[in-house]
Fold this protein.
Amino acid sequence: MTIIDGKKTSVDIKKEISEETAKFVGQGIRAPHLVAILVGHDGGSETYVSAKMNACKECGFKSSLIRFEADLKEEELTDCIRSLNNDETVDGFIVQLPLPKHIDTQKVLDLVDPDKDVDGFHPVNLGRLMVGLPCFAPATPAGILELLKRYDIETKGKRCVILGRSNIVGKPLAVMMMQKNNPGDSTVTVCHSGTENLADISREADILVAAIGVPGFVKGDMVKEGATVIDVGTTRVKDDTKKSGFRLCGDVSFDEVAPKCSHITPVPGGVGPMTIVSLLSNTLKAYKTRFNLH
Ligand code: GUN
């Protein structure tokens, strides 16, 4: 059984991104610039955004954080997006989700210029992804494919079962895994809260991806011997032994599932760090397009 080390892989990729960035900056071009918009003070979002900003620094990117209080008016947010769309010094920007309930999230995401949509959440990018055209792919699915590629995991013709149908992970990942590509070319099934006999389906998976946000949901008897298991869960569970007061818990019961697997991602240190580097890769891609670099 091999533990897929997302942390180490992300360090390798950050080095590659840093080197490419340094080359362009050495030619006198300004550094890539990523902006994050953070609304409110949700603990998880604070942590993720700060990790994204730190990763930018590590790779020689400029990063900016725009903060709003949770009671902001939708118009303030849409004005901010319009201004970032028109700002030549910004290559890409993200609106950290979730947004407060009184904000129409889809309306906000629809306003982002698709050429700066480094999260890959705009319908234009998702539509292009669907038909296999160049686009910004959402960061978490892109990070998962990068792990499958770097660990030489065969996907062609394999049965891939995805637990979860979110717009951010499950749906785009299903499209990417079925695309005639490597990684890809899999036979994909998406399970969700309405699925009957879910365990029977998950047991058929050569590649099982858990992205439902229920800690420890995938048990040993739901996994086929020799499967690759990818855990996207990052639920915060109270833990007084930790300095932060919580620990991150995946969707997979690691101790009982791991012995059955050929490969498995841990939580933390699996998919999470890869999501961040995929965002940086997308930002570098937006930057290279802007300056016509190769
Ligand atoms: N919330 C959870 N995951 C993500 C992500 O990848 N991007 C943004 N913007 N918000 C998120």
Remarks:
- The longest strand covers residues 33-39.
- The pocket of guanine is lined by residues 94-97, 119, 139-140, 168, 275 (CB under 6 Å).
- The two ends are 38 Å apart (CA to CA).
- The CA atoms of residues 92 and 116 lie 4 Å apart.
